[in-house]
Amino acid sequence: MTDRPRLDERTVAGHLELLEELLSGLEATPGPTAERALDAIATLAEVYGEALARVMDRATAASPELGAALADDVLLAHLFVLHGVTTGKAPASEPGAAFIPLDTLARRPATARAAP
Question: How far, in Å, CA of 47 to CA of 26, rounded?
């Protein structure tokens, strides 16, 4: 457990909106610095996606109930969808629930684009 306070769904949704605005601003900024920043973000998202997949694999293997509980969390469910992590469940849709657009951070890292 952590001593850090948890964010409520409204705060998470606000952070996600801000993230989308910041990413859109970066995408609209020409030049190599913006490209490198977007590549860094995409690479970080890819690593985090792999980490989420590993957590889900281990949680489900240890306890199917734990895997189901993780998939029931609105934010986690959307992150699983964003990163292509299979949970066996569709994300919950609740009014006011956090929503992450599927194209958020979908940019491929520089290493993936380097090949012709």
Answer: 20
Write out pLDDT tens, residues 61-81. Answer: 999 999 989 988 888 888 888
* C-alpha–C-alpha distance, residues 9 and 7, integer Å: 7
Radius of gyration of the chain (CA): 16
Q: Are 83 and 45 in contact (CB under 8 A)?
A: yes
Residue 87's contacts (CB-CB under 8 Å, 6 or more residues apart) are: 56, 67, 70, 71, 77, 80
Report the amino acid identity of residue 98. Answer: A
Q: Which of 61, 22, 41, 17 is nearest to 107 (CA)?
A: 41
Task: List, in sequence order, every beta strand (DSSP E) within the chain.
Answer: none
What whole-number distance in Å separates Cα of residue 71 and Cα of residue 74?
A: 8
- DSSP letter at 96 equals T
Phi then psi for residue 91, to 5 deg, are: -60, 145
pTM (2 decimals)?
Answer: 0.68
With CA atoms as reference, report the closest residue to 88 among 114, 46, 59, 113: 59
